[in-house]
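Lab meeting, action items carried over

1. Structure of the two-component assembly. Owner: GW. Status: complete.
Input record:
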Amino acid sequence: MTRVLLASRNAKKLAELRRILVDTGVEIIGLDDVEPFPDAPETGATFEENALAKARDAAAATGLPSVADDSGIAVDALNGMPGVLSARWSGKHGDDQANLDLVLAQLTDVPDDRRGAAFVCTAALVVPSGEEIVVRGEWRGTLVRFGRGENGFGYDPIFVPEGDTRTSAELAPAEKDAKSHRGRALALLLPHLRALG
Amino acid sequence: MTRVLLASRNAKKLAELRRILVDTGVEIIGLDDVEPFPDAPETGATFEENALAKARDAAAATGLPSVADDSGIAVDALNGMPGVLSARWSGKHGDDQANLDLVLAQLTDVPDDRRGAAFVCTAALVVPSGEEIVVRGEWRGTLVRFGRGENGFGYDPIFVPEGDTRTSAELAPAEKDAKSHRGRALALLLPHLRALG
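Predicted assembly:
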């Protein structure tokens, strides 16, 4: 078995990647399975920079092939922001409701035909021998004016994916995984992970 | 004398434009000097759209050559936002302190070498016979981490113009007028206004 570190403590992310990589000869471990090392702050100007920095730190600290991701929402009428600031758009880190409420307030006067947005996920794989892969998954949709749905997190309650009428917080988790920015990024990374097995 | 309508109720803006146009045969009047007409909401995606829409509305309603402006701040690390949403960035319209505080909070982790910004002003002149002119003035600078200075308004307390160490809220009004985005836009419009005289 080849061990690959996913630079995350999120049990759902770990389970998802393990599910995808079952029977490939790749074993996924998380940050809780390795010696602690200092986290680099996410101060990059792009999702790519942040994912790559996290994966590089993890690979350098552990000597293991390491995967990291960074994601957020890019709103057309906000020139692609909140972007890398998605988790702290309201100024406080991780307050999903405040972040979502602020985006809705900023878009109050933005008409329906200019409310496009994309969820974006970049994933980086860094192999200590030197190989670096960065991939990007996008999920296009529009932003509604009032949140709805109980699944998901972040901006899911206000995002209606193209071709659907439900918000991504109204999709079942497996359905979301199959279509989402994160699912697409992992699919792009998959051949590179399999090649390590 | 040719009368030109400045689509504004701001006494400072009117006085400034009158000062610039003294002895040119152009008389500037403001919205308080004409019959009231409905204001179009500022919902354009660009400063240009907003300025042009305001000037068109004013020219159509009054039959006078009409000038309108729209302005805001474009922050590099926010992909050019707050932009047209500068006056309502925090979700509430016209709360300068809340807007400025939000930008500072969003930029907390943005390092000094990525804190560039530009004040932008577009001004439009619409002549009822059909001529439309739109000009843009920009004023580059950087954003500091704590506001200072008592002059100006909006984002002035956190904006240090290129070539200076003071914020634009620490400049004397006449000094600011001579260098600012608004001053530059009016300078670009001036030959077109003089041609009406």
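2. GW to write a short summary for the group page. Key points so far: Residues 141 and 161 of chain B are 4 Å apart (CA to CA). The interface with chain A takes residues 41-43, 45, 77-81, 83, 85, 88-92, 101-102, 105-106, 108-111, 114 of chain B (CB under 8 Å).
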